[in-house]
Amino acid sequence: MIIDKLENLKMYAALNPRIALVCKYIATHSLTDLPVGRHFIDGEGVYVNIDLVQGKHREEAVLEYHHRMMDIAIPLTAEEEYGYAPVAELPDAEFDTQRDFAKVEEGVCQTYLTCKLGNMVICLPQDGHAPGICKSPELKKAIFKVAMY
């Protein structure tokens, strides 16, 4: 899991060349003005979900992970905290291959990281992450989904 300033996202294109498409999209679109929903950038290989979520307390957050996609999440209206635990150390969970998603109900976060406004978090397939922890009752965020292969 990587947390950094959004302006530094281009430096991470070495992780995945599709990150350059995300950078271009961010430069040409106002994320805060996009309506809630999925917006395709490069078909199923790169898209952004604009979500409006209810802020959670740490004890309400559930770890999740993906195999095929990395997440690049950007809080748009309030800072967001993420729980973290390595997937290799989590208990087994049912993986939905169609949705590229597993929810680890019994997982325990090892640490918590705060993503402030103007920052972004990159969650790779090995990163169990518990998003949505927020003091604000509502959070608008952009989650770019980027295919790993």
From TrEMBL:
The protein's name: YhcH/YjgK/YiaL family protein
InterPro entries associated with the record: NanQ/TabA/YiaL, NanQ/TabA/YiaL_sf
Pfam families for the chain: DUF386
GO cellular component: cytosol
